[in-house]
Structure formats: C-alpha cells, structure tokens
User: What shape does this take?
Amino acid sequence: MGRSFDGDDEKIREWLADGLDCGEIARRLDRHPNSVRGYVLRKRYRTPEQVGATSSRFEESEDAATTSVITTKPIKTMEDAVKAANVDLATWYVERWECTQWTTGMKVGVKGQEEAIQQQQYRVKLWLKRLMPRSHKEALEAIWERMAKHAPKYAKIKEPKPVDEPFLGVVSLFDAHFGKLCWGEETGSNYDLKIAEQVYANAVEDMLAESISRSVCLWLLPIGNDFFHLDNARNTTYAGTPQDVDGRYAKIIEAGEMAVIAAIERLMVTAPVRVVWVPGNHDPTTSYHLARTVAAWFRQCDRVAVDSGPSPRKYVQWHSTLLGLTHGNEEKASDLPNLMATERPAEWAAATCREWLIGHGHRSRKWVTPEIDTHAGTSIRMLQSLAGTDAWHHRKGYVGTRRAAEMLWYGKERGYAGHVVVGARQ
Assistant: This one.
C-alpha cells in the first residue's frame, strides 16, 4: 500500500483551486504523479479549468499497443482521440478506436466553499500498430551508428578555378518515387525499381553534362519530395493509401539509399554538395531515414553537408538568391511568397532573387506574384517528375506528362540564370 494523502488533503484541494496540475502537486509532495492523479479522481477534487487527461494507461507489446485515457475534452473524431492520448503518429498508426462518455458530479473549490457541478467525461481507447516493426527500427539505428563510426574517408579534391561568375547548381530530381510499379500493358509505360535506378543515375549525368560551361561552385540536392513511393513495410503512403510497389521494403530502401549516395559521389568531384531533406506526402518517414543514412555515410567528408531538420519548408540563401523548398502538398502556392517573407525576413530583405521550388504536381509550371503585390517578383516553380504513370493515375486520365528532371543555375550576382530540362533516360 502506498502512503496516504489524508494529511495533505487540504493542501491538495487548495493547490487545485489555484490551478496547479497533478504533476506540479506531485513534485511539491515528492510523490509520483500517477498517485496524485488517482487520489484526485477518487476524491473528485478538480477545478473546471483543469481540463484534459485525468488518467491514462499505455500497454505495449512487440509491434502493437493499446492506450486509454479519461478526459474532459470533447472527443468527436479520431484526430481528437489521438491528440488526447498523445499518440506519436511518426511511430504508430491507429488500427481502431472507441470512445464512451458520461456525466459525473464533482466538487470544486476550497474547503468550506465547495460547489457541486456536473462534468462531461470521455474515455478513449486506441489500438495501435507500429509503422515500422521494432526490429527494423533497431536494425536501422544500429546501421546508422556503424556508418557514423566507419564512414568512408574521401581524399581532398582540388577546386577548379572558376572561369565565369560562380553558380549554385540545383539538381532537381523531384518525385522519383523509388519502388513504384507501372506495367506498360496497363499504363502505357513501364516503371520499376531497376528503371528508377537507371533513370536517376542518367539524369545526374545529363545534368552534369549540361553544367560543363558553368562555374558551379556548390550543388544543392534536395532529397525527399516523394523520392520513395512508400512510407512503411505495409506498402502504403504516410496517410495509409495502398501503393503498387516493386519489391520488398528493405530492397527498395537499400536501392534508393545507394542511388542517392552514388549521385552525391558523382557531384562532389566538381563542387561541394549541400543535401536538403524535404518531406513528401508519400515518404516523410522513409525519406527522413534516407537523410540520416546519407549524413552518416558522408560524416567524414567535408564536401557534403546534410540538412535533415524537422521543418517541412527549407530555405537556402546563396548570395543574392533566397530559395524556398517544400513539397507543395500542404501550402497554397499563392501563400508561399508571404511565408518566405515571414519566416526569413532578414534573408528575404537582402535577396534580389527569391524563388520557391516545389514538386508534387508532376508537371512544369510557374507562378510569379504580380508587381503590385507586397512581395513582388517571388517565383514559384513546380518541377517535373522522373516517375512513370501508375495504374491509379492512368485510370483517372492523368497521362501524357513528360517524365523529366530540371537543372537550375543561380549566379552569385544575377540570381536566376537559366535552367535546362533533361528527359528521363533509361
């Protein structure tokens, strides 16, 4: 039996009336928070302002879990339930859930001035499954740790002397969808893991060839942006949409990782490479692990830098140019110029060339804010995709889009200096 709270009853009620939560009360009494919560529930001492979870339970097995919580916050949707139970959707997906509700009487206020009220309460229970089996995750963590310790050592590379204005080269290999399966008899063109590897590597070679006449002193390589077609071993996107997939999960991940590593090794010979992770709607989890793997692999190479920060929007300042990168599935294109000015005010003010590079649409398109706009001249470029047309897109009639990647150049002084489109080549 645990220690009684009877001697602390009056203090607990006063602290509750003052708005303190059970965690703070437990700290003051040097007791476990769950013990305090249980006592408060039994005694029904709680102020109306102290809404939220009043008790919770989490039980976990190898790759599944159940969690339940009692709360006074209204629960109407699964999103409400997930928030109330504080479920990490980067680790778990909800297999099913249920909610019951009732009204209970309780006393609030300090001793001698209690008031009886009726309080609506909700009991939520969720059945969870891991997005990635624990064994897979532990194996990946072990691989990253080994890579970090035994990363390849790259010899110093002599920088070529520039013959023109220095350029930033943006290697836009958006929406590669590694792992997508397209059958030509059904969709008009074939696309599988082997084709994806060939197309990706050839696009890098074609972009390098197109850049020979430019004095590129830094490569910018965004990764993510639906680089992978799937986000878990169940062959679904992050949102749970089933996908036509070529091969097993581990095979797809390995092929994608090595394709990106090979591309970086090819680019770094001519100039340093800055890798930026931009999560897509298909692959926010798998592409994050890709960024982690790349960072570990090139840890001992001073010519490669990796930005795997959690923000879905990334910014890169290159002298007179400020670039914004996002996948394009969340924000409205018309909102992006204002977002850039709001999130990066100093860089925005210093830049004379301001552009957003987005994917998701699998087509080439460009918006420019009107000259009378507060943020005049900010361009938004929707870049093309290397991936083939799958069965769903074919059924919907989304066909005929050119499969391609785009190489963009930005000069140190002049900003945007042109781009070239390289078609998907097997």
In short: The first strand starts at residue 53 and ends at 60. The radius of gyration is 27 Å. Residues 134-423 form a domain with the Purple Acid Phosphatase; chain A, domain 2 fold (CATH 3.60.21.10).
